[in-house]
Write a structure and sequence with these properties.
Rossmann fold; 216 residues; globular; 23% strand; alpha/beta
């Protein structure tokens, strides 16, 4: 048995995922985030970005219950899941975002992203790639979220994390960083929890030069 497989076999969450029928142990990260922040409610419409293999979508289905909706999107093909609308495509393209919005029936309540780059082992490179995915997820959230909606994004820790958190605060009333217990101890991953989307700001009205009477 390889060292990696031995670690997996000793991992409590890995074993529990097999028992509970989740496709990956990462389901418990979302469930622990949910326990603390109450992001997803019954009846919500949830979009799961970078969803493969689908464990977050599986967990989300249990939270939205029968009147909610979960849409899973990934570049890779995702095997069908009960109660989940599965889509394949690039989340950064307008056509895919339009298709997701149509599947959602309009705006959505929650956007999730557990997407991660293929790890190279080079800390700065992996952080930069993670930030690129985080930026993409935030862009999709700005496009799809209803006012008052929520966003969860996985990010690898590094120097660009805090500027990203600060910028996200311009869109959401509450932005926090949280590391669930299910994250492996050696992992540098953390999760941005952004709640209560404030919507797109209204454009500044154009001021016409002749709109005011000026006394000379």
């Amino acid at each position: 048995m390889s060292h990696w497989r031995k670690q997996q076999g000793q991992d409590t969450y890995f074993r529990q995922a097999k028992t509970d029928g989740y496709r990956a142990r990462s389901a418990y990260k979302l469930l622990q985030i949910q326990e603390k922040f109450r992001i997803i409610r019954a009846g919500d419409v949830v979009v799961d970005l970078g969803a493969a293999p689908g464990s977050w979508s599986q967990a989300a289905v249990t939270l939205v219950k029968r009147h909610g909706r979960v849409i899973a999107l990934d570049l890779q093909e995702i095997a069908p899941m009960p109660g989940v609308t599965v889509m394949q495509g690039d989340m950064t393209t307008a056509a895919v975002q339009d298709a997701v919005a149509e599947a959602a029936g309009g705006s959505v309540d929650v956007v999730l992203s557990d997407a991660a780059p293929s790890a190279s082992g080079i800390r700065d490179r992996d952080h930069a790639l993670s930030m690129n995915l985080a930026e993409a997820a935030r862009m999709v959230a700005r496009r799809l979220l209803r006012t008052g909606g929520h966003l969860i994004i996985k990010i690898f820790e590094g120097p660009d994390l805090q500027p990203f958190v600060k910028e996200t605060r311009s869109d959401f009333k509450s932005v926090r960083v949280f590391a669930p217990a299910a994250s492996r101890k050696e992992s540098r991953e953390t999760f941005l929890i952004a709640q209560h989307y404030q919507g797109k700001p209204s454009p500044e009205p154009e001021v016409q030069e002749d709109a005011f009477d000026v006394e000379s």
